[in-house]
Amino acid sequence: MKEQAFLTSESRQRMNDKANKFLEKECIVQTGENTWICKPILGYNIHTYTIQKFPDDTYRCNCQGFHKNKYCSHIEAVRIFISRNTPVTAESQRTFAYA
């Protein structure tokens, strides 16, 4: 995925911190092959958001942040979730090494 131009190093860090908070609280749940939900954190927010991954490796979320910026902490959380839950294979290492 291409780096978003609007993300400063500070906003990227805040987004990563929020994403890790969603993961720590086990808010990310895979509901389909390429679909996840991000459940609310009690006392923090009240909405459940849906995140989709498309074949061209792009993501979409139904939160306001995504609609404004085309990226959000929910997508970041899903990307981290995927990386933590995808077994490393020789093929994925080759793809990663040469991409």
Blueprint (SSEs and pairs):
Layout: H1 9-24, E1 28-32, E2 35-38, E3 49-53, E4 59-61, H2 64-69, H3 73-85, H4 90-98
Antiparallel strand pairs: 1-2, 2-3, 3-4
Overview of this protein structure:
The chain has helices at 9-24, 64-69, 73-85, 90-98, and strands spanning 28-32, 35-38, 49-53, 59-61. The chain is α+β, with helices and mostly antiparallel strands. It has one domain (9-98).
The number of domains is: 1
Task: Tell me the number of helical segments per DSSP (H or I, 4 or more residues long).
Answer: 4
- Give the biggest sheet: 4 strands, antiparallel
Secondary structure tally: strands = 4
Q: Structural class of the secondary elements?
A: alpha+beta
The N- and C-terminal alpha carbons lie at a distance of: 11 Å
Write the element-wise H/E pattern from the N-terminal end onward.
Answer: HEEEEHHH
